[in-house]
Automatic annotation (TrEMBL):
<feature type="transmembrane region" description="Helical">
    <location>
        <begin position="103"/>
        <end position="124"/>
    </location>
</feature>
<feature type="transmembrane region" description="Helical">
    <location>
        <begin position="12"/>
        <end position="38"/>
    </location>
</feature>
<feature type="transmembrane region" description="Helical">
    <location>
        <begin position="162"/>
        <end position="186"/>
    </location>
</feature>
<feature type="transmembrane region" description="Helical">
    <location>
        <begin position="234"/>
        <end position="251"/>
    </location>
</feature>
<dbReference type="Pfam" id="PF04018">
    <property type="entry name" value="VCA0040-like"/>
</dbReference>
<keyword id="KW-0812">Transmembrane</keyword>
<feature type="transmembrane region" description="Helical">
    <location>
        <begin position="206"/>
        <end position="228"/>
    </location>
</feature>
<dbReference type="InterPro" id="IPR007163">
    <property type="entry name" value="VCA0040-like"/>
</dbReference>
<keyword id="KW-0472">Membrane</keyword>
<feature type="transmembrane region" description="Helical">
    <location>
        <begin position="76"/>
        <end position="97"/>
    </location>
</feature>
<feature type="transmembrane region" description="Helical">
    <location>
        <begin position="260"/>
        <end position="278"/>
    </location>
</feature>
<feature type="transmembrane region" description="Helical">
    <location>
        <begin position="136"/>
        <end position="156"/>
    </location>
</feature>
<protein>
    <recommendedName>
        <fullName>DUF368 domain-containing protein</fullName>
    </recommendedName>
</protein>
<keyword id="KW-1133">Transmembrane helix</keyword>
């Protein structure tokens, strides 16, 4: 019975990874949002914040027993299936998103609009109460996102140092509900380039981006873990504001590329309902863990 539960949890984590990876290649949608909706967010942030080089330091000193103990602190039951799902989704969806954003621009962004709107409602459930402090942080997030989305893309080049920095910045956004790492890549003029790099398997660019992402997420996860443990309500209120503010991006894309009203409405409703369905389904299979 225990083995069946382990297998079931592994499959569910893999499915969460697929959803997170899919969201991470979509401008305007965050992989962190998918992690939150599917009930794995806090475990993920905590697990990442526990990663350090102590096991390597102990091994270099010849203390292999301590090195093994340090590695046991890593949540491999989470990381292995989750990263497998994210990797598969990113490689697959990078090709699909290139077509969707080019051929079906307005309905695709309408779908994103529905996803983000429903996700904002879900994150709002994690705000304890609508007091003055939470309202202030919500408004700060809203204003910041509206201004941020309105920024013009930076005409950065595609050298390895720039790609490395882009990976660091984008991964911090990808783990935050409400901020799209893919959108940050758009602003940094790296989104289409990295999609092409994935499709063409440019290993030097991919490795450099992943290295930057690894360093970025290990640093940022500690800050985020602290905020979630000590200031969860105001953090969630800020994220709700961010998510509502980022709706400016899909709205502008819809209004400037729309040919027909009906496909846009249908796509938006589908995106909205999809989040609700995912929330209900994964609510039945929340994974219990020890912090």
């Amino acid at each position: 019975m225990r083995k069946i539960k382990i297998y079931r949890d592994t499959i569910l984590i893999f499915l969460r990874g697929l959803l997170m990876g899919t969201a991470d290649v979509i401008p305007g949608v965050s992989g962190g949002t998918m992690a939150l909706i599917t009930g794995i967010y806090q475990r993920l942030v905590h697990a990442i914040s526990q990663i350090n080089a102590n096991f390597l330091i102990a091994a270099l000193k010849g203390d292999f027993a301590r090195s093994k103990e340090e590695l046991k602190k890593w949540d491999f039951n989470l990381f292995i299936p989750l990263l497998a799902g994210i990797g598969l989704a990113v490689l697959t969806m990078s090709k699909i998103m290139t077509v969707m954003l080019t051929v079906y621009t307005a309905p695709t962004f309408a779908f994103f609009f529905g996803l983000i709107l429903a996700s904002a409602g879900f994150v709002y459930k994690h705000v304890d109460e609508l007091n003055l402090k939470n309202i202030v942080f919500l408004l700060i997030g809203l204003v910041f996102a509206i201004i941020f989305v309105g920024l013009n893309p930076i005409q950065a080049n595609h050298t390895l140092p720039i790609i490395f920095l882009s990976g660091m910045v984008a991964i911090c956004a990808m783990i935050l509900p409400g901020i799209s790492g893919a959108f940050l890549l758009l602003l940094l003029n790296q989104y289409e380039y990295m999609l092409a790099a994935l499709n063409q398997l440019k290993f030097a660019d991919i490795f450099t981006f992943c290295l930057g992402a690894l360093i970025g997420i290990l640093s940022f996860s500690r800050i985020l873990n602290y905020l979630l443990e000590h200031h969860k309500s105001v953090t969630m209120a800020f994220l709700v504001g961010l998510m509502v503010g980022t709706l400016r991006l899909p709205y502008e894309k819809i209004t400037t590329t729309m040919d027909s009203f009906i496909p846009v409405i249908i796509a938006g409703i589908v995106g909205f309902i999809l989040v609700i369905v995912l929330e209900k389904q994964f609510e039945k299979h929340h994974l219990h863990w020890e912090a």
